[in-house]
Amino acid sequence: MKKVIVIGCPGAGKSTFSRALSERTGLPLYHLDMIYHRPDRTHIGREEFDCRLAEIMSGEKWLIDGNYQRTIETRLNACDTVFLLDFPLEVCLAGAHERIGKDRPDIPWKEDRLDPDFERFIRDFSAECLPVIYELLEKYPQKNIYIFKSREQAERCLLTI
């Protein structure tokens, strides 16, 4: 396990899982939200994002946390291991609400509320994004793919690494 991606719905705990995995494996951790977003809540352009992502993926070892659907296949092609956090909607919504008002190392600001558009994205994720993710995963059977349906499954896996 040298090149790893962690994907799934916002609020599932990708960043928390990624930090724990990085601690256990020593892999350098990159949060896509920290690359894409600026502290003033604007974001970098697509070309700059793609260049930064390509630079990270040119390394020998990395752990990339974040969904960013447009670039999943690029990351799938380059990685050796995938962790998909496919948790129920209620878990993801609760996770998104729990982080409001907290400092986080994976995003450059402190959320003060759950943005309605972001909440809608979370609610629609299972129907709109997961089918595409599963279709992509089927194209890469040679990868080590771990799919977790609960936080408990993810935590048990971490204990074995």
Textual characterization of the structure:
It is a single chain. With 161 residues, the protein is an alpha/beta fold. The protein has helices at residues 14-25, 32-36, 46-57, 72-78, 89-98, 116-128, 130-138, 151-159; strands spanning 3-8, 29-31, 62-65, 81-85, 144-148. It has a single domain, classed as Rossmann fold (3-Layer(aba) Sandwich). The chain has eight helices and five strands, in the order βαβααβαβαααβα. The protein has a five-stranded parallel β-sheet, sandwiched between helices.
- Counted up, domains total 1
Number of helices: 8
How many individual β-strands? 5
State the strand order across the main sheet. 2-3-1-4-5
CATH architecture classification: 3-Layer(aba) Sandwich
Q: Strand share of the residues?
A: 5-15%
The residue fraction in helices comes out at: 40-55%
The overall average pLDDT, rounded, is: 96
Determine and state the CATH class: Alpha Beta
User: What is the CA-atom radius of gyration, in angstroms?
Assistant: 15 Å
End-to-end distance, in Å? Answer: 10 Å
Sum up the overall morphology in one term. Answer: globular
Helices and strands, in order, run as: EHEHHEHEHHHEH
Named CATH topology: Rossmann fold
Features:
single chain, 161 residues, alpha/beta, Rossmann fold, five-stranded parallel beta sheet, 14% strand, globular
